[in-house]
Design brief:
two-stranded antiparallel sheet; single chain; 4 domains; 580 residues; alpha/beta; 24 helices
């Protein structure tokens, strides 16, 4: 009965055992004294047999070798004498010849013990192949290795094609070989410089290609934008042509109606009255010519400076013309001896067009004298005046002085005025404390700022805004919601300003009502819980970016003093009230 032929795994295991047995007792004892695997288990430095047994178990483990154990085994294997001195490419090219001379197990073990991870990965990949090395005749392997390393052997003066080699080095042969190697080294350096120049040129060309690609993408985007703008212009032109056609048709109808009205007036004998009215109108024009010219000049300048004013002036002029035409048509209907069927239809068309333009301009709603006065004052109001007008309307609400619709219209006008003030761009900052100026710059897009708000302190300071005048109870949740809604309305459209509101709360939580507005609840028990959270936030924000100003809004003097000492600036709660 014959034994089974040993496999490559058995040969590898035997080679590992041979390497471990070949280690000196001093090396084994020194390794056991320093390696953590031998700190327990009763391994004594002098008992090398037990230590070698433990080394065999560790070397055969499937979870890999430690770096220290791999270096110990590599010192006694073929890795130290051969594999470690070869490059990765030389190992890949000559592995079959080396395996034919030294044996597959010795070569694979030397590769597995190499310090280079890429070599170990290649050994694992070759080990999984079947077979790992191609069969090569030892004589052919020796000849190929002789061809590869022959020049190096000649430079060293080694003679013979098979061991034992003899040294026949002479000075002339050494100098010739040195000159030959120097020539090869010089040629290789020239080739290396050429390759480096080619690599640098390739990098420059790649950068140029990237720049051209980016420019091409930019031009394509601009072309798309121009194409979209062209389509929009064509669409607007078509709309204007349609509007012009309608205007021409209506103008002809108005002209016919005016002619009919004039003929009817002449026929009825009202020439004297018409001439009296005409003379009075001419006198009135002469009397007020200067004032009218001044107003017309101011309106033209305003229409040129503000696109919205120009559009509104155009619509108002059209509305005046339509009102005048409707008045003439109604006068003709009232005094005509013979009515044509076209005149009532023209009056109805005028009524529909006038109602449409009034709806666009929002002038079809009745206004009271108080609403008219407040709206006129809004046209030239600044931030403080806007806050005063808003507060006035809120105080007048319980007395029903203004209708709900009028209050809504005034609030909308205040919001439009605020948007107009904030969209002016670079404005003179005026005289104000630096925290207020920093907040103003952030809200106008000229800088960045982070606004921290002591939530309940601000609610207490602005009781007139968040508590009804009658003193009726309002839940705390409702007051907080009102204040958060105000801040989102004012700060939400301006990403350069971030707001962080901190309230006292039994449970720590956060919410984000807007991308740049965050609401936090401190959690915990006791007093001044939000103060600690605010101070921690200031320290964190100053550490992240010391260039962005951190503004604390609170009337708590102690908290403001601590905030200023760690790098924040403070403003009073009334300044936030003016902003809202």
């Amino acid at each position: 009965m014959s034994d089974t032929a040993p496999t490559l795994a058995d040969a590898l295991s035997a080679e590992r055992d041979r390497v471990i047995d070949a280690l000196s007792d001093d090396a084994v004892s020194a390794f056991a004294a320093t390696d953590p695997a031998f700190t327990s288990g009763g391994f004594r430095p002098g008992n090398t047999a037990l230590i070698r047994t433990r080394l065999r178990v560790l070397a055969a483990a499937t979870d890999g070798l430690s770096d220290a154990l791999r270096r110990l085994l590599a010192h006694g294997s073929l890795n130290r004498t051969l594999i470690a001195d070869l490059s990765e490419s030389a190992i890949a090219d000559l592995r079959h010849d080396l395996a034919a001379l030294f044996g597959p197990a010795r070569i694979l073990l030397a590769l597995q013990l190499d310090e280079r991870e890429t070599v170990r990965e290649a050994a694992a990949r070759w080990l999984r192949a079947n077979p790992p090395f191609a069969p090569v005749d030892p004589a052919a392997a020796t000849a190929r290795l002789r061809d590869v390393f022959g020049r190096l052997l000649d430079a060293c003066g080694v003679a013979g094609t098979a061991p034992p080699f003899t040294l026949t080095l002479t000075r002339e042969a050494w100098q010739d070989e040195k000159a030959h190697l120097n020539d090869q080294l010089r040629d290789l350096r020239v080739q290396l410089r050429a390759l480096k120049d080619s690599a640098a040129r390739a990098v420059r060309l790649q950068k140029l290609a990237d720049a051209l690609t980016a420019e091409r993408d930019d031009l394509a985007a601009r072309l798309d934008a121009e194409t979209a703008e062209k389509r929009q212009v064509i669409r607007q032109r078509s709309e204007l042509e349609a509007e012009l056609g309608r205007e021409r048709t209506q103008r002809e109808e108005r002209l016919r109606a005016a002619l009919d009205s004039r003929l009817a007036s002449e026929f009825a004998g009202w020439i004297a009255h018409a001439r009296t009215v005409e003379a009075a109108a001419a006198t009135d024009v002469m009397r007020h010519r200067d004032a009218l010219e001044q107003v017309e000049h101011a309106l033209r300048r305003q229409a040129a400076a503000d696109r919205h004013s120009g559009n509104r002036a155009t619509l108002l002029a059209r509305l005046d013309a339509l009102d005048a035409a409707r008045a003439r048509a109604r006068d003709a209907l009232a005094h005509a001896l013979v009515q044509t069927p076209e005149l009532p239809a023209a009056v109805r068309a005028l009524d529909d067009e006038i109602q449409r333009i009034r709806a666009i301009l929002r002038i079809d709603e009745p206004v009271s004298p108080l609403e008219e006065t407040l709206t006129a004052r809004l046209h030239t109001a600044d931030g403080n005046a806007l806050y005063a007008i808003r507060s006035l309307t809120e105080r007048l609400t319980p007395f029903a002085v203004l209708e709900p619709g009028a209050i809504n219209r005034i609030d909308a006008a205040i919001n439009r005025r605020q948007a107009a003030l904030l969209s002016r761009g670079e404005m003179p900052e005026g005289k104000a404390p630096e925290p207020v100026l920093a907040l103003r710059r952030a809200l106008t897009g000229r800088g960045k700022a982070i606004l921290l708000i002591d939530g309940h302190n601000l609610l207490f300071a602005l009781q007139g805004r968040y508590m009804p005048p009658s003193g009726a109870a309002v839940p705390d949740r409702e007051k907080r919601s009102r204040m958060i809604a105000d801040l989102v309305r004012v700060v939400g459209p301006h990403p350069s300003c971030r707001v962080w509101i901190v309230f006292d709360g039994p449970v720590s939580s956060e919410e984000t009502p807007a991308p740049n507005v965050r609401v936090s609840y401190s959690g915990g028990v006791g007093e001044h819980r939000a103060d600690a959270v605010l101070l921690d936030d200031i320290r964190f924000l100053r550490g992240v970016d010391a260039e962005i100003p951190v503004i604390l809004a609170s009337n708590d003097n102690a908290l403001c003093g601590q905030a200023r000492r760690i790098g924040a600036v403070t403003i009073a709660a009334t300044d936030i009230g003016a902003l809202l």
